[in-house]
Amino acid sequence: MYRAVALLLAASALSGCQVSLGSGGLDYDKLEGAITTELNNNYAAISRHVAGVDCPHQAQDPKAGDALICNADLEGQTVRVRATVSDENYNVKFDTLDAVYDLSAAGGRLSQGISEEYGFDVAVTCGDGLRVVEIGRSFECTATDPTGDTRTVRVTAAAVGEDDHWEVLGQD
Q: Which pLDDT belongs to residue 2?
């Protein structure tokens, strides 16, 4: 049984953000700068900073509807951002394809959610640092009950605006 929980800490960051890059061709530097600024604004909540964004330069200017995948460097990890050209004026909409988790905070939120669900205290550890997870993919944490028994908790990253899902594995 899956349960929903809001675990993302500035995680999915961007959904439907749009920037006007003018006419006369796609300004890649401006696009990369806009994505960097938007990500940094969102990741400030977890005191993280994007070192830079790299968007692949295409031989021909993209047309309305064309998309490219840019890569943001977040503390040595890659967060993928899809940039889609909206119109002939090179307005670009972008959204992240990955969720970013502060693992310590995720463990704390899972502890609270699982404890409420089961009616007794459960401590969940997911590790330390950041973890980047493709939306729809999962990662695992460990839940420990007051008797010391442990279970694996599988967390599945949800799309922007949706809650992540968790499942305690190995239940009877």
A: 47
